């Protein structure tokens, strides 16, 4: 009799967990769809976000292409474009922060919190929509790179791993952005993030070899998570990089995995906890 009761409780608990998970997935999908509807309402902004990295590639390739010597005599685009793939994972982060902050400022987040829905669905829905946006933007940039003469020289499997590392970086940075958006006092606070994005991007190996920088600055650039992913992408695409002998350079693929995982481990739970603690 006791065994029967325990079994019944276990089945009920399992069924309740499965049902809660199903409802959570449904909530996430509903809020992801909300973001897609916003895209339809402002297609120009979304398309500009996809095209902007292509414009940066053309600008930097034209400005610096003739002044920078690349290892092995390859063209600058061969060096630049994998770095820009990584840089694209940073672009749009302020948009994520702004969207989260504006929803909180307008009371939209409070309305979501008052509804019978999963407490993590709001942040997960935003993350899912932004990941889809990032995938489309990355595919457009890859296509543009191919048109400009860039190619990957390794196997297709290595190219897929490189794309996976790029999207892993984007996924981790989204959680940083979501947390900042939830913690921000208002839309005005997002300006500070917009100011910081570019220095973080430039203090990396995206555009130039860190060995050409002052020693202390080059060390900071090599350990930048953006540099780790850019260097790993160049290695997997078999595009030219630089012959650094530091641990960060020699283990770029490992570092391109460790950095995003650390960011997710820290900022995902912080984001969910921050959302739950928001005051109406």
TrEMBL record:
<dbReference type="InterPro" id="IPR013525">
    <property type="entry name" value="ABC2_TM"/>
</dbReference>
<protein>
    <recommendedName>
        <fullName>Transport permease protein</fullName>
    </recommendedName>
</protein>
<keyword id="KW-1003">Cell membrane</keyword>
<feature type="transmembrane region" description="Helical">
    <location>
        <begin position="189"/>
        <end position="208"/>
    </location>
</feature>
<dbReference type="InterPro" id="IPR051784">
    <property type="entry name" value="Nod_factor_ABC_transporter"/>
</dbReference>
<feature type="transmembrane region" description="Helical">
    <location>
        <begin position="123"/>
        <end position="147"/>
    </location>
</feature>
<feature type="transmembrane region" description="Helical">
    <location>
        <begin position="80"/>
        <end position="102"/>
    </location>
</feature>
<comment type="similarity">
    <text>Belongs to the ABC-2 integral membrane protein family.</text>
</comment>
<feature type="transmembrane region" description="Helical">
    <location>
        <begin position="253"/>
        <end position="272"/>
    </location>
</feature>
<dbReference type="Pfam" id="PF01061">
    <property type="entry name" value="ABC2_membrane"/>
</dbReference>
<keyword id="KW-0472">Membrane</keyword>
<feature type="transmembrane region" description="Helical">
    <location>
        <begin position="159"/>
        <end position="182"/>
    </location>
</feature>
<feature type="transmembrane region" description="Helical">
    <location>
        <begin position="46"/>
        <end position="68"/>
    </location>
</feature>
<dbReference type="InterPro" id="IPR047817">
    <property type="entry name" value="ABC2_TM_bact-type"/>
</dbReference>
<keyword id="KW-0812">Transmembrane</keyword>
<keyword id="KW-1133">Transmembrane helix</keyword>
<feature type="domain" description="ABC transmembrane type-2">
    <location>
        <begin position="44"/>
        <end position="278"/>
    </location>
</feature>
<dbReference type="InterPro" id="IPR000412">
    <property type="entry name" value="ABC_2_transport"/>
</dbReference>
<keyword id="KW-0813">Transport</keyword>
């Amino acid at each position: 009799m006791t065994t029967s009761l325990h079994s019944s409780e276990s089945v009920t608990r399992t069924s309740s967990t499965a049902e809660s998970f199903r409802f959570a997935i449904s909530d996430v999908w509903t809020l992801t769809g909300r973001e897609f509807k916003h895209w339809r309402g402002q297609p120009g902004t979304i398309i500009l976000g996809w095209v902007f990295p292509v414009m940066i590639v053309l600008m930097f390739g034209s400005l610096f292409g003739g002044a920078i010597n690349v290892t092995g005599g390859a063209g600058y685009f061969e060096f630049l474009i994998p770095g820009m793939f990584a840089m694209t994972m940073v672009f749009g982060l302020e948009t994520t922060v702004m969207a989260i902050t504006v929803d909180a400022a307008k009371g939209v987040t409070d309305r979501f919190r008052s509804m019978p829905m999963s407490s993590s669905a709001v942040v997960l829905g935003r993350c899912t929509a932004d990941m889809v946006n990032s995938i489309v933007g990355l595919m457009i940039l890859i296509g543009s790179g191919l048109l400009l003469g860039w190619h990957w020289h390794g196997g297709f499997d290595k190219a897929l791993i490189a794309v996976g590392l790029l999207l892993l970086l984007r996924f981790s940075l989204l959680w940083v952005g979501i947390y900042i958006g939830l913690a921000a006092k208002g839309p005005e606070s997002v300006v500070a993030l917009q100011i910081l994005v570019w220095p973080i991007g430039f203090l990396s190996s995206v555009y130039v070899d860190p060995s050409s920088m002052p020693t202390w600055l080059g060390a900071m650039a090599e350990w930048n998570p953006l540099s780790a992913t850019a260097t790993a992408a160049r290695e997997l695409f078999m595009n030219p990089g630089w012959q650094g002998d530091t641990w960060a350079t020699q283990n770029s693929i490992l570092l391109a995995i460790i950095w995003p995982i650390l960011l997710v481990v820290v900022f995902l739970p912080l984001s969910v906890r921050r959302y739950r603690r928001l005051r109406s």
